[in-house]
Structure formats: C-alpha cells, structure tokens
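Q: I'm a student working through a structural biology exercise. My instructor gave each of us a protein and asked us to get a predicted structure, then write a short paragraph describing it. Mine is Two-component sensor histidine kinase. I'm not confident about reading structure output yet, so if you can add a plain explanation after the tokens, that would really help. Here is the sequence I was given:
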Amino acid sequence: MKRPSPLRRLVDASKLPHSTIRTRIALVYGGVFLVLGTALLATVNLASRAGTET
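A: Happy to help. First, here is the predicted structure for Two-component sensor histidine kinase. I'll explain a few features afterward.
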C-alpha cells in the first residue's frame, strides 16, 4: 500500500515514539499552564481593580 507524502512524514516521526510523545505532552502541558496563567493574571487584575476602586 503506497501512502502520500504527508503520511510518510507522520510515519517517519513515529519512528521515534518517545520523543514525539514527550513533545506532545510538553506542548499540551505548556498550553494548559499558559491558559491557566493568563486566567490567573486576569482574575488578579480584576480583583486588584475592584479593590482599588472601592
């Protein structure tokens, strides 16, 4: 079965499963921490603004 070139690239990447899995986990955790960090900063900014306005 012949596969197109993008699928061949995915197969080439899957030859090193540990590195790709680690990079995927790192990207997922990085995105989650980025979203949580921005949400935390937003809530802190809103809380500080509410505290200074009153």
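A: Here are two points you could use in your paragraph. The CA atoms of residues 31 and 37 lie 10 Å apart. The chain has a mean pLDDT of 78. It's a good idea to check both against the output above yourself.
Q: Great, thank you!
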